[in-house]
Please model this.
Amino acid sequence: MPKPIFFSLLLITIWGHSCQAQLLTTSTFKDSIETLLDKLYDANSAVEEEHLLEELAHLGYSAFSQIESKDTLLADLYHKPLGGNLHYFGKYLSAIDAYEKAYDIRKNILGVSDELTFRMDKNIASCYFDLELFEQTIHYYDQAIPKYDSLISNLLKDNEIKELSKEEMAYIRRLGESYMFRGLAFNEIGEFQKAISDGKQSVKWYERLKETRDIIIAYNSLSIIYKNAGNYKEALKFAHQARQKGELIKDKTELPNIYNSLGNIHYHLQQNDSAIYYFNKTLSIDFESKDFDNVGETFTNLSLVYLRENNFDSASLFLGEGLGYYKLKHDSADFHYDYSSTYENLGDLYTKRKKYNQALKYYQLALFNNTTNFRDTNVYQNPNPETINVYSKPDFLRILHLKGLAFYKKYQADTTQKKALAAALATFQQYDKAQDHLQADLLLEDSRLQWIAQAHSVYETAIAVALAANEKEQAFLFAERSKAVLLLKQLKSLAAKTHLPDSLQRQEITLRRKIGIANRELFDLRYSKDNKGIQEVERELEQYQIQLTQLVKQLEVAYPSYRKVKRNRIETDISVLQDKLLPQDAALIEYFEGKEHWTFFLLTRDELKSWQVSKQDFSTNELSKLIALLHEQEISCNDFSGLAYKAYQFLLEQPLKEMGKELKHLIIIPDGQLASLSFETLIQSVPSNNCDFGSLDYILNAPFSLSYAYSANVLLENAALDKQKPKNLAPFLGIALDFKEKKYRNQSFCRGDTLEILSHSIAEINDITDKLGGDKLINEKASVENFLKEYTNYNILHFSTHATQSCLTEEDTRILLSYEDSLTNRKESFTGKELRGLSTNCRLVTFSACETGLGELKDGEGVMSLARDLFMAGTPSVVMSLWSVPDKATKEISVAFYEYLKQGKRKDKALQLAKQQFINYQDFSIPPYYWAALVQVGHPAPLYRSWTLLYIVLFLFLGISILAYIKLKKSSS
Model:
């Protein structure tokens, strides 16, 4: 067996040392290592090699305890000859121990913090990567990367093109390698956006070195990450860049990996001929060089192409070949993670052939080869995500989905197979638990959103299975699990913070605020194309995110009650929802949008009903057209009323009939595009031939009021938060800008948007404060600085200013405050991410501003709007706008809304009455654009006590008292 290159440097001349006795001690340790290593390289059998490796590891334990005086020489011995060789021979846990001892000697005993200590973190991370323990991998790279980044930044400061020394090149290579492997670790746990960011950093540093082979490896790694993230365009670009460089230098070690990547990308692009071409090129090089380590993977990949073409014979042949070469690679081991993909593909093969029993057998084999401790071959048994160790959680989720689907198809083929239907439901329940575990491990919101979107289509099948099994409650649970997952987890985290000291709560809030500001700065810099500034802020943002991750982990260890509340699985208890959210005169309608059907859930105090409706009854195009009409000031009454009535028939007619009782409050939980629809604009009867907006039978005029929620569970958390809010706050803070000054009107808010004058904004705030009391921040006083000083002191926050969603990206979601900053002379605004970093005490936020309920629609999570960001910050109720609201109309509706709130009305009822009042005061017929944009989301309970009932009771008491007095007077006389 050849010695690793680094071994030739391993025991060079020992540096001068003052203590001869210590030299002799460490020299003995060194000689013992040399002797064992010589025997190891001459070992004739695997058994002998294993025995010698155990001796080598044991020697390290003995030396550390026996050599009392630790010095840098001993640290170096632990690092290279001991840790390095144990690592090389695959004794990863023993290598980690050696590396940790080297670190302890240098850092903790000698107080030395230098590049060698950074390298220990990097080496430990590398061992964990080889052990496929990716969370630990990420943790140690998180320690190493910032230190290397800072070291190299100082070396290259103000001189990016300087000639690098060998030592500096080694530092950069280690940093590039750290980014690459941390990126691959993020890729393995499904954290694709973070993986892409690290992959790009790896490419940047390897390109700085100009070492072709390193660049090839970095390009191909980034290509793999992009492919797994579903960005095939970028994946193809980097794979071809790697191929061109690899073919130029004829690198037969990396070219098979590159061709395999290209084959995979073309397969996902459904370009079968190209996929086959590249897989065959991979095989030809591997067979020519007699390197069979990756042949099993290539044959397995090749089988997928033939499986797609329904060429079952070829697919079966290649799967058999793939499994054979995997067995060869792993010495015919009974179980191995590599086998999992082949068994999964065999399951797909038999599912396509409608041989479901065989398919289920192979999916079961795929599951237990993807785990370390599940070995049950009974297909009716599933691994429990809470008790097993999984190699790849993304793979585990996919296999569970496929297994559940196979059971369901088996039932559909023969509906007497009730056991198969029950097994399908049980499998999807385990999928749901596994999805929850995956989400708990992810760090970035973008990665979580990607997995939530993928899960949405799986939940569609799960709902169908539950309804087929007549399990309505389980179907409702699946629908709930598909909605507002991140928002619900954030609300649980807010609840968990009550178990932390105030100082630690403030520390976390400060970090989140810094992350929000850095994201805002990053967006501005990218827009201005300030590349140097971008790099500085990216580095700063990376530090804040690592600090926040480490802080949260530390808090979970130090405060078990915090961890328990934060991480506990969120279960849907329908009886609790009915008890807490639904009095006898209230109901909840939850919608779930599938590919072909809408599923409706109607929940009342007494029962749950569900049914499905074909999307052909009211098409996606018709819904889009109706929503577009609502955004227009001038529209045809006939065009609008036809769509509004059809939407009513589709969305509300049957639910309202099913209730069969008097209804005062209706909660709408939308899905998909329905989140952008104001349900009050739907009409309950066909209009006359002379269509007139003023005479339409709007839901607005129904005897019940409407409120909205992201999910039933989120609404339950909103209600709990509302009760926890401080009781001694000032009533109202109004923030208003009129944008009359030239400095506002001459500036663009978001890529060219014009800041129009808001003539009624200040009058709006003045009128409301006259009615409620409270304070206001007007024009130049409405700065970010002043707002941050005041916002936690009020029961209600009201924004009357400009907001935008016109740029259609989350970073562009902003609400504008005072334009000029005294220090930076830049506009002041809050982005959505900054709003999330706040911790609100208020019970209600009203946005008298445009498009605050709009944003990018994310499957399974909902609309990423400013309103949602405030819910993330702990606000239990928000009044938001679904389109660009007219200034005067919004002012009148807002003022009336607070008048009705002051009377003790529920928020949803107060808003309904305010809109009705606005329409009744008009002397002309107006389309819904003018009155329907504002909607109330979240907990609709009153903010003020209603004295009406008390007055009635007092009046009755007084009346009875008077009658009693008169009667007493008569009887006495």
